[in-house]
């Protein structure tokens, strides 16, 4: 796998250093800290990274690699029980739900789907077929998440090799929240994205061309401003925001300024003079306005929009399947060197958001059964930020 930031030689040297430290002694092991470079190295070649931290079995490599999946607020709400060398159970983590912005767990289940699809692609890349059974013991209520699995996942040696090329784009995939530049997304590019994604469950609808895009921006911007001005909803971002590097790489989850497309001197100034994670600071008018202005500049630089539309029962199974297609799309975009950023404030299931949802749905002329599950902007950008993932021991049951 190619990655612009690391030569393979440097990577091997680095992971050798890492594994050497791990094996020397538990005391020395503590000196090794997960940081920015490790986060990048992990994404560059997750299988090699897994080996070098002692995960040799295919099932372990698959479980670790799938944590790179996009997930709501980088909460990583997954719990895994390894059953055997060829199977695991995936559970939702009820301590990592976001009720204020996701009251019916729609995005929570999308996030289970992204994990499962990436696990499937990782298994394929390692030479295994996978069988996924959704909710093998029934759909859990909020109180049953720890006992009723979201899915069973089983691998068996591949019968016919049809390696899905999407997996090769994993090192380049990220949620890119920077300002985009360059040309508008073309009709041909949207066709290529559709073909590469090859969705199993949802329909992809593209909004292309300056005028069309402009006509949807008010929904995105106004719904973001609405959410930012609601205490409970704005509080979710505060709780999951990590300001200093030490916080980002010790907690290894959540959101950050760098992940929001702000880096270098701008990030330094923002952290030093503006960004305030205290309750009063975060909810102050100045802080909310700064966040809305940043979002506006992101949204206005969109070079295309994409919507993920389902047409079934709009239930937990459909949300998981949506997440699976969303995973495929995000890899397809990475493969075409396109930047992609999900923006869902107008699609959420609390009353203030529902108003925006209904307006977009009617503007699109969708049928009653059709449901916009997710939407995002597309464009071009060289910005990169590899958001961290937690240690596997935090996820394993
Ligand atoms: C279901 C779902 C909903 C998301 N919604 C948003 C969103 O509204 N705004 C946003 O900036 N990112 C959104 N994201 C992106 C996540 O925050 C992102 O995947 C996570 O922080 C990890 O970063 P990475 O994808 O770069 O690895 C969403 C991701 C998923 C899977």
UniProtKB/TrEMBL annotation:
Coiled coil: none annotated. It comes from the Bacteria. Gene3D superfamilies: NADH Oxidase (3.40.109.10), putative nitroreductase (tm1586), domain 2 (3.40.109.30). One of its GO terms (molecular function) is oxidoreductase activity. SUPFAM superfamilies: FMN-dependent nitroreductase-like. This is Nitroreductase domain-containing protein. It comes from Leptospira ilyithenensis. The lineage of its organism: Bacteria, Pseudomonadati, Spirochaetota, Spirochaetia, Leptospirales.
